[in-house]
Amino acid sequence: MVTHVPAEAHGDERGALIAFVEAQRGAVRRAVLGLTDEAAASRPSASELSVSGLVKHVAECELNWLRMAQQRPNERARTQETWGEGFHLADGETVAGVLAFWDGVAKETDEFIRTVPSLDDTFPLPEAPWFPKEGAVSMRWLMLHLVEEIARHAGHADIVRESLDGKNAFDLVAMERGYSGQS
User: Fold this and answer.
1) Closest Cα partner for 31 from 3, 55, 1, 58?
2) DSSP state letters, 38-100
3) Is 114 helix (H, G, I), strand (E, B) or coil?
């Protein structure tokens, strides 16, 4: 879970894109650091969002984009009726379980991007009012979009976490690294 994204090795565009996606994954993952499942599921603000729900949503969102890029069916596809279930833990789900699921998705995304023949390769976008008709995007676009998507939800998670216990992103980085905040 990096906070500073190191410069890529010369010419390693794939590595750079993966590193920026991983930096945003880390920001979302840190939002649940030190919380019980119950606390992570709470909604302390006017929003319907919880930090555990955000973790689940981002993990499922990354899987959805990966499956589109692979041009394979998404085994966790949501429908209009089940969309809301992607924003909270269901019975039997835990933060640890969702994080483990996301670890697998992240590993698969990283391996896919490392092995795809070219970042210029494209895949079709699904039919939706927010996508261009018969649109397609590149693997490079996919990775930049994952940075954008995960970062947006990292910001949501920051606000929800700070509303829970006052811990901000810097506090969570310090916690993760074992700093107590005392001199």
Assistant:
1) 55
2) HHHH---SSSS--HHHHHHHHHHHHHHHHHHHHT---TT---TTTGGGGGSPPTT--HHHHHH
3) helix
Distance CA 159, CA 86 (A): 19
Q: How many residues does the chain have?
A: 183
Structure tokens at 25: 């994954």
Give the Cα separation of 53 and 45 in Å (integer): 14
Q: Nearest to residue 118, comparing CAs of 14, 18, 20, 19? A: 14
Q: What is the pTM of this model?
A: 0.92
CA distance 63 to 94: 18
Nearest CA-CA partner of 162 in 51, 87, 52: 51
100, amino acid identity: A
For 83, phi and psi rounded to 5 degrees?
A: -55, -45
Helix then strand then coil, in percent of the chain rounded to 5, is 55, 5, 40
At 123-179, the pLDDT tens digits run 999 988 999 999 999 999 999 999 999 999 999 999 999 999 999 999 999 999 998
> What is the token pair recorded at 154?
């990292």
Give the DSSP letter of residue 11. Answer: T
Tell me, what amino acid is at 4?
H
115 exposed, middle or buried (CB, 10 Å; 0-12, 13-18, 19+)? Answer: exposed
